[in-house]
């Protein structure tokens, strides 16, 4: 029994010891922070309010949820059972992004906030309400459709028809239904679209003579003249709306009221010619391609020495035909020859540059009137000639001649004629015999702008200083101004053929007159400028000064100076001198007389934004 008692006693001892130890607390579970809403919140540019939801498992005593955001456009960030915030409107055209950071004790998560960009502002473009709609109606002068040459403007024009200072002009060369009524001309109701192919058909307005410009304080275009990139015009009984694009910007032009459109249709001028003659040049100017006839119609003809007669009228046509067989004599092929403004020399055409008409003065030496053609035809048949032409002055001329054209002189071998050698030596071309001081005291400067005529990146201008009475010293310069000199030709120039900025092209003669020259109306005195300098200065009072110190090809020094108001070539009186503004002038010796007169042939180059 004692052993058994001892055994139970030993078993009870651990229980006694265990009952004396401290109780152990259970280890708590770790806290868990969980995002229960989207991790990315997106807003439109208008902004708005958002809520972030979350849960916390096994929260930590004393710990708090905190939320922060560095973006100033996220406001009113509030923490509670949920987290709320407000995103302000985005006025920028750039999208934006930030993060809201949420922390609890040692736990954290992020919510990305994205906001779209604001829409790009709608470009409403230029809105222009015209106070005047002024124009001219040319009838079917330029096209089979009626031509309405109109201007939308805020201030109109001065008494001489020139633009006013600080004014805006939209020019539209419109082709619509013919106006057959009398009295005030009205625009035909309808829709018209810009036609940069310049087909001049009804329902269009041409790109060539339409455009926009604004004038500065002196009345000159302050930024240049700009063509329309695209356009549409709507004419209703209530008014006119023009929508055009200029340099990528939309312009909306409106006009309500009474338009003033002058009727510029003209009566036909008729002449029955009593004299017809021609000079035949063969294919000298168009080798193997076409034959060339310099054809004249006149009411009085020539005197016994081959000179024009006083107060006589002469129409000149530079005709190109198929190459003819001259075995049995000279003749102009029968057919209709059409005016060609591009001088293509295509058979069946007559050129713009070397065709025109002139009326001699009382002495028969100078031109009382000179005109150039803008369109028309010449029909030659065995019965005679009918020429119907339109001039750049807005006139229609009908010239007829009865009978066959038989007076044709062969000028195709003119290069072998001794008389030509008298006029066209190999050079030098100057006829001066000493240094020369030009007297320009009673002169006017006329100028013409040709843009980048030589395609060298510099703006080309021609200007001539001419005697007001038609007699005296003439000088002309063909200059390359700077790349952006589209509204003036002020600067210092050097005579040079380098085709660089601020150079004046030297003068020379090679069947054509080119460049810079001194000459007189006698047709003999002349000198090409081949070296030296000139300067054109803006005096700031509406006048321009020109000084030059140049040399001809005989090394004679030619100097001169002039100050006055420079005028565009459109303001120049009609004289033979206007031919200087043809860039390349054909020189012809009339071979039907015992003595020859040199005449420079050429037409005035057309200028955009001016019909005439």
How would you portray this structure in words?
The chain is 4% helix and 44% strand. The chain is mainly beta. It has four domains: 32-115, Immunoglobulins (Immunoglobulin-like, Sandwich), CATH 2.60.40; 126-263, no CATH class; 268-412, no CATH class; 424-601, no CATH class. The strands form seven sheets. Strands 21, 22, 23, 24, 25, 26, 27, 28, 29, 30, 31 and 32 form a twelve-stranded mixed sheet that branches. Strands 33, 34, 35, 36, 37, 38, 41, 42, 43, 44, 45 and 46 form a twelve-stranded mixed sheet that branches. β44 and β45 (557-564) form a beta hairpin.
Summarize this entry quickly.
With 612 residues, this protein is mostly beta strands. It has 4 domains: 32-115, Immunoglobulin-like (Sandwich), CATH 2.60.40.10; 126-263, no CATH class; 268-412, no CATH class; 424-601, no CATH class.
Give structural attributes:
single chain, 612 residues, mainly beta, Immunoglobulin-like, 4 domains, twelve-stranded mixed sheet, 2 helices, 48 strands, disordered C terminus
Helicity, as a percent range: under 10%
The overall number of domains is 4
Content of β-strand:
35-45%
- The N- and C-terminal alpha carbons lie at a distance of 150 Å
How much is the radius of gyration in Å? 43 Å
Count of alpha and pi helical runs = 2
Strand elements, count: 48
What is the averaged pLDDT score? Answer: 84
Name the poorly predicted regions: 6-11, 15-20, 414-425, 574-579, 582-612
What overall geometry do the principal axes of the alpha carbons give? elongated
| Class inferred from helices and paired strands | mainly beta
Largest sheet: 12 strands, mixed
């Amino acid at each position: 029994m004692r052993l058994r008692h001892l055994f139970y006693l030993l078993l009870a001892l651990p229980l006694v010891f265990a009952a004396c130890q401290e109780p152990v607390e259970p280890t708590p579970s770790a806290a868990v922070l969980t995002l229960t809403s989207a991790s990315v919140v997106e807003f439109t540019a208008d902004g708005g309010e958002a809520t972030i939801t979350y849960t916390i498992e096994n929260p930590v005593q004393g710990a708090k949820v905190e939320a922060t955001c560095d973006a100033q456009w996220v406001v009113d960030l509030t923490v509670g059972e949920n987290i709320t915030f407000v995103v302000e409107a985005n006025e920028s055209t750039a999208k934006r992004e930030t993060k809201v950071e949420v922390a609890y004790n040692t736990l954290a998560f992020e919510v990305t906030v994205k906001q779209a960009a604001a829409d790009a502002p709608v470009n409403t473009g230029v809105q222009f309400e015209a106070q005047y709609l002024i124009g001219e109606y040319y009838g079917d002068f330029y096209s089979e459709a009626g031509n309405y040459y109109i201007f939308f403007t805020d201030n109109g024009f001065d008494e001489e028809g020139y633009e006013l200072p600080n004014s805006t002009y939209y020019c539209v060369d419109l082709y619509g239904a013919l106006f057959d009524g009398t009295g005030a001309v009205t625009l035909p109701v309808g829709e018209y679209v810009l036609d940069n192919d310049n087909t001049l058909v009804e329902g269009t307005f041409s790109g060539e003579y339409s455009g926009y410009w604004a004038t500065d304080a002196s009345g000159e275009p302050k930024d240049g003249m700009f063509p329309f990139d695209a356009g549409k015009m709507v004419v209703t009984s209530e008014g006119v709306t023009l929508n055009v694009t200029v340099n990528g910007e939309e312009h909306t032009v409106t006009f309500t009221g009474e338009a003033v459109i002058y009727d510029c249709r003209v009566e036909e001028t008729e002449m029955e010619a009593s004299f017809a003659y021609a000079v035949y040049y063969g294919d000298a100017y168009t080798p193997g391609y076409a034959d060339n006839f310099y054809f004249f119609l006149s009411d009085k003809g020539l005197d016994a020495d081959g000179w024009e007669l006083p107060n006589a009228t002469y129409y000149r046509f530079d005709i190109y035909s198929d190459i003819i067989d001259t075995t049995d004599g000279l003749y102009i092929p029968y057919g209709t020859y059409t005016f060609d403004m591009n001088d293509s020399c295509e058979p069946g055409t007559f050129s713009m540059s070397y065709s025109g008409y002139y009326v001699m003065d009382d002495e028969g030496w100078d031109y009382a009137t000179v005109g150039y053609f803008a369109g028309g035809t010449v029909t030659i048949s065995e019965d005679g000639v009918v020429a119907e032409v339109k001039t750049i002055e807005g006139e229609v001329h009908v010239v007829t001649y009865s009978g066959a054209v038989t007076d044709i002189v062969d000028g195709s071998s003119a290069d072998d004629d001794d008389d030509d050698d008298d006029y066209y030596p190999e050079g030098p071309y100057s006829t001066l015999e000493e240094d020369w001081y030009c007297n320009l005291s009673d002169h006017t400067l006329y100028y013409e702008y040709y843009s980048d005529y030589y395609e060298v990146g510099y703006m080309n201008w021609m200007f001539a200083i001419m005697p007001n009475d038609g007699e005296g010293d003439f000088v002309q310069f063909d200059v390359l101004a700077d790349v952006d000199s589209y509204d003036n030709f002020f600067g210092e120039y050097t005579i040079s053929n380098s085709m660089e900025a601020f150079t004046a092209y030297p003068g020379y003669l090679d069947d054509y007159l080119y460049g810079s020259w001194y000459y007189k109306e006698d047709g003999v005195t002349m000198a090409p400028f081949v070296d030296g300098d000139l300067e054109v200065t803006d005096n700031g009072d509406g006048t321009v000064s020109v000084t030059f110190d140049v040399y001809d090809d005989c090394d004679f020094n030619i100097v001169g100076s002039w100050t006055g108001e420079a005028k565009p070539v459109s303001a120049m009186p009609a004289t033979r001198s206007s031919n200087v503004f043809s860039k390349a002038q054909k020189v012809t010796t009339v071979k039907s007389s015992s003595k020859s007169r040199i005449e420079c042939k050429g037409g005035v180059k057309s200028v955009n934004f001016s019909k005439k």
